[in-house]
Design a protein that fits this description.
single chain; 548 residues; 7-stranded antiparallel β-sheet; 8 helices; 31 strands; elongated
C-alpha cells in the first residue's frame, strides 16, 4: 500500500507539473547559504550569523529582498548577504528567503540545536510534574470505593499475619496466643479523599464487615486451635493519608491519626479459653485490621495514580527493551489539591554508548489543573529517548517506489530530533532537523535533498483511556535540493518534499510510539480523561483534562 501510494503521489506530481502553464512558472533567484553549516549543534544559545550569496536568475529580475527568519539581511552589491538571528536553547529552523522583483522566490531551510550534550543514561530531574485538583481527588476516591470491593484482601493481609499475638516473643511455648486473619470482606465501601495541608483527609465507610480467622494458642502447655469470626454492620475509618517519596519504590503511604467507629460488633470465638481472649482481645480486631486494610489498598493505588513504578521497570517498546526508573522528588498538598514531581531515567538497550542528547535548562512550569489534573512532561526526557531512538537506526529508512524518475528514497538522520518551543509562538513542536534524503534509480543516486520538518504535538488518551500520552500530528516539510548530486529527478524542492512525506510519516509514527511508552501517571480503573488540551510552559509539554 505504501508503494502504491508513493507511486500515485509521484504520478500526480508529474501530472501537475505538466499542467502548469509557462506563465504560471516563475524562476526563483539563485540562493546559496554558506553559513551556518547544516545540522549545526552548539553548546549555548545566542546570536548566529547567517551568510550566503544571492543572484538574479536567467531572466535578470533584480533581487528585492533577503530575509532570515523574517529578519532583513544586508545584501551587498556583489550579492553576498549577512543577517544575525537569536538562537534560543533547543532546536529551531533557520529559514532564508530571497525574493526578486518578478515575484520569484528561493528558500533554504536548515537546523540549529543549542544546549549541553549529556549521556543517554542521564537522570532527568523534574521530568514529570503533576497537579491534581480537589474535584479530581473526589473522583479518584469514588473509583477507589468501587475498586476496594473487588480487591483480594486475603492476599494483601497474609504477609501481616499473625495480626495479633502475645506471649510468643521467644516462640510458641506453654503460654502464647496468635490470631491469623484469613480475609477482610465487606458488601460496600464509600471512600472520600479531601486535600488538606500535608496530606489527604481520608474516610472509608465499610458496610457489613466480615473478618474470618484462626487462633492458635497454648495454655498450661496444652496447644489449641479454633476458628474465629468478627463482624460489624458498619465500620468508619478516618485519618490523614500522609504520602511521601520513597525512592525508586515510588511513594510511601501512611494513615496518621486514624480513628475507627464500629457499629453492630459481633464476635464468634467459641472454644477459646478466656486466658487466650485476654491475650488477643477480639473486640479490638476490627480497629486494628480496618486501618491496615485501608493502608494496604490505598498505598499501591495512590502510587500508580501519582506516577510511581514500585521499582525499575523494563518495557518493550518498538521491539526494544527500555529500562525505566522513576524517583519521586517531591509531593505537597494544600486545601486546593496536590503537586507531584518525579525524576526519571530511560535507557533503550544497546544505546548506552551513543552520543547522548542535547539538554536545555528548564524551570518549573506553572501548574493549573482546573477541576481535573494537569501533567507536565519535560522536553529533556522526550529528547533523551528520541536521541536514543536515532542511535538504534530505526529512523534511517529506505522506501521503494514504483514509477517516476526514481524508484527509492533513503532518509538518514544527521542530528537528533528535538521537542522545543517554537520561537514564533512558544508552542512545543517536534523538530526533525536536516535529514539527508537520497533518491535512487536502480540503486544509483539521482538526487539528494535536505529535509527539515516541524510536527505539532497532540495529547491523546492512552492505556485504554486510563492515561494520557503525547502524539505527533502532520509534518510541515521544507525540502532543499542539494548540488552534491546532479538532480535527475526533475522535481523541484516543493515536489520532493511531498515525495518524502510518506517516509516521514513512518518516522513520525515510530517516534509517537516511543513517546507513548513514557510512563505517566495512570488513573484508577473506572476513570477516564476528557476535554484534553495541550500547551507548553518553560520547557514542558503541558497536558490537561478533566476526569469522568
Amino acid at each position: 500500500m505504501r508503494n502504491l501510494f508513493l507511486a500515485t503521489s509521484l504520478t500526480l506530481l508529474a501530472t501537475a507539473a505538466c499542467n502548469d502553464s509557462v506563465g504560471d512558472l516563475v524562476d526563483p533567484p539563485v540562493l546559496k547559504v554558506t553559513s551556518p553549516q547544516r545540522s549545526l549543534i552548539q553548546d549555548k544559545a545566542g546570536l548566529v550569523t547567517v551568510t550566503g550569496t544571492v543572484a538574479p536568475n536567467d531572466s535578470g529580475a533584480l533581487i528585492k529582498k533577503v530575509t532570515v527568519n523574517n529578519v532583513p539581511a544586508a545584501v551587498a552589491a556583489d550579492g553576498t548577504f549577512t543577517a544575525s538571528i537569536q538562537v534560543k536553547p533547543g532546536a529551531m529552523l533557520i529559514h532564508t528567503e530571497a525574493v526578486d522583483e518578478a515575484g520569484g522566490k528561493a528558500t533554504d531551510t536548515r537546523s540549529v540545536e543549542a544546549g549541553q550534550l549529556r549521556a543517554p543514561s542521564a537522570n532527568i530531574e523534574n521530568a514529570v510534574t503533576m497537579a491534581v485538583s480537589k474535584p479530581a481527588f473526589a473522583r479518584i476516591a469514588d473509583a477507589a470505593g468501587t475498586m476496594i470491593e473487588g480487591v483480594d484482601m486475603a492476599a494483601l493481609l497474609a504477609p501481616m499475619n499473625p495480626l495479633m499475638h502475645s506471649g510468643d516473643e521467644s516462640g510458641e511455648d506453654c503460654l502464647f496466643a496468635r490470631l491469623y486473619v484469613d480475609n477482610f470482606k465487606m458488601s460496600n465501601a464509600t471512600i472520600t479523599l479531601v486535600p488538606v495541608n500535608g496530606g489527604l483527609a481520608f474516610s472509608a465507610k465499610l458496610d457489613n464487615v466480615d473478618i474470618p480467622g484462626r487462633a492458635r494458642y497454648a495454655v498450661a502447655c496444652a496447644d489449641g486451635s479454633n476458628n474465629v469470626r468478627v463482624t460489624a454492620s458498619s465500620v468508619l475509618v478516618k485519618g490523614t493519608l500522609v504520602i511521601t517519596p520513597d525512592g525508586m519504590k515510588g511513594f510511601k503511604t501512611d494513615l496518621a491519626g486514624e480513628t475507627v467507629q464500629i457499629t453492630g460488633l459481633n464476635i464468634s470465638a467459641s472454644g477459646i479459653p478466656g486466658t487466650v481472649l485476654d491475650m488477643i482481645p477480639l473486640d479490638t480486631l476490627i480497629a486494628k485490621a480496618a486501618p491496615l486494610a485501608a493502608k494496604l489498598f490505598m498505598g499501591p493505588m495512590m502510587n500508580k495514580a501519582l506516577g510511581g513504578l514500585s521499582g525499575p521497570q523494563t518495557l518493550d517498546v518498538l521491539g526494544k527493551q527500555v529500562t525505566v526508573q522513576v524517583d519521586p522528588s517531591d509531593i505537597a498538598f494544600d486545601t486546593d489539591g496536590g503537586l507531584i514531581t518525579l525524576d526519571m531515567k530511560m535507557l533503550i538497550g544497546g544505546t548506552e554508548n551513543s552520543k547522548g542528547f542535547i539538554f536545555t535548562d528548564n524551570g518549573i512550569p506553572t501548574m493549573d489543573p482546573g477541576n481535573g489534573l494537569e501533567v507536565g512532561l519535560a522536553d529533556d526526557l522526550a529528547n533523551n529517548v528520541v536521541s536514543q531512538l536515532v542511535a538504534t537506526g530505526l529512523l534511517n529508512l529506505h522506501m521503494p517506489a514504483e514509477g517516476g524518475t526514481f524508484d527509492g528514497t533513503e532518509i538518514a538522520m544527521t542530528s537528533p530530533p528535538m521537542i522545543s518551543a517554537d520561537p514564533a509562538d512558544g508552542k512545543m513542536r517536534l523538530v526533525l532537523p536536516d535529514m539527508m534524503s537520497t533518491f535512487t534509480l536502480q540503486g544509483t543516486p539521482v538526487g539528494r535533498a535536505a529535509i527539515n520538518a516541524t510536527v505539532d504535538l497532540k495529547v491523546m488518551p492512552a492505556n485504554n483511556g486510563y492515561g494520557i500520552a503525547v502524539e505527533l500530528g502532520k509534518p510541515e516539510i521544507h525540502a532543499d535540493v542539494l548540488d552534491d548530486i546532479e538532480n535527475q529527478t526533475t522535481l523541484a524542492d516543493e515536489d520532493l518534499g511531498k515525495a518524502v512525506e510518506i517516509t516521514l510519516n513512518s518516522q513520525i509514527a515510530t517516534i509517537s510510539a516511543l513517546l507513548g511508552g513514557i510512563p505517566l501517571p495512570s488513573l484508577p480503573a473506572g476513570l477516564q480523561m476528557k476535554d484534553l488540551s495541550i500547551t507548553s510552559d518553560d520547557g514542558y509539554v503541558m497536558m490537561k483534562g478533566a476526569l469522568e
